[in-house]
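Dear colleagues,

As part of the handover before I leave the project, I'm documenting each prediction I ran so the next person doesn't have to rerun anything. This entry is a single chain, and its sequence is reproduced below.
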Amino acid sequence: MKRVLDEVGGLRAMTWVMAIMLFLTMLAAALGLGTAGAARLLDRQLSGRLTVQVVQGDPVRRDAAAARIVTALRRLPEVARATPVDRAELTRLLRPWLGSDGADPQLPVPAMIDVDLASGDAGDARIAAAVHAISPAARVDRHERWMSPVSGFMTSLTWLALTLVLLMAGATAAVVVLAARAGLEAHRPTIEVMHMLGSTDLQVARLFQRRIALDATFGGIVGGIAALGVIALIGVRLSQLGSELLGGILLTAADWLLLVCLPIGFVLLATVSARLTIVRALRLTL
């Protein structure tokens, strides 16, 4: 029996269904891997970092208080590094909102101090006490506190992408099962003749398995190449944005290797699903 499953115009519909399913699965997997990597990068960047804002209307008193706070922080064992943010850098950051007025020396812009902790989860209370002893109006903000909604959103996207991958894998297995059963029903008379000639259920199932494996391989190659091309294009566009947060979504070498392995997994899934379906159906009906 040269062909077990029907084909239309020389190409089976299941081949293109597999290509589309794999294409969507790889996009979802790339989204999950990218957001997971960006969330890890964000956690590493924000863990153990504080910002001290010295709020004072008088620039002279503000700068003097900031200098005393920097000196006091550098003496604390909980602090690994305390660096005042340059006024020119603050002006550059404020330019999108204030324009050229941000460079006005009389503008009451708080003095900013970046603080790296020696221990990522300790020392907040003592640091706050040291800062407030010098300037009661100063504020101590942990980066993780105000960026936690972003980190939580990226984690949610990661889990959503994983769910989509699992759903697509289940849908792919269901498509294979339906195609195998349809082929079995279409060729039932031929299969009965093969049984009378001595063919076993495993031999018949092997025909379906080989045919579906070939179709799944072709669909996997088409869908995989298309998905990798789209993912690479999106990665290039993200790298051109120059955003540190979006730049963390870029895939690593391990992520690319996992994506390349996905088509192989889909072919194996289709092959095993076809074999189990046909063997079980033959044992129950023939």
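Residues 56-137 form one domain. The first strand starts at residue 49 and ends at 54.

All the best with the project,
I.
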